[in-house]
Amino acid sequence: MITQLTRPNVEFTACADADPEIFHDDVLAPTAKQLCAGCPLAEACRTQARNSGEWGTWGGETSAERAAAGYPPVGWTGRGYTRFTHPCGTPAAYQRHMRAGETACEPCKQAESVRAGEQRARRRLRRKNNPARTK
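Above: the chain sequence. Below: its structure as tokens.
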């Protein structure tokens, strides 16, 4: 659905007289798509939603369909959402294995061993430089 601020010809579209809730309720998405089907501004509406990360049905395309096409709405964590995960061989990946209840792979075990060794060395150095400090 295009707002009146962005398109002056919105009064000629089917969505102009429709209840706005139709375009923001997933259950009503088929109805919204029917309204958008013959709209002359559907492509512009869809493009605006893709470019600005809008939620709801815009130009006959739902939030999920936009996310699947590579244009997820702002804050999207549904299907098609990919979260950055550290590659194996890093301490963060070792932690990921542990949180998942998995046995860590060898590269992750080695990375964690190096991290833990460096941490122990830093602690020893701090104790050596500050003898008054106790554990």
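The two ends are 63 Å apart (CA to CA).
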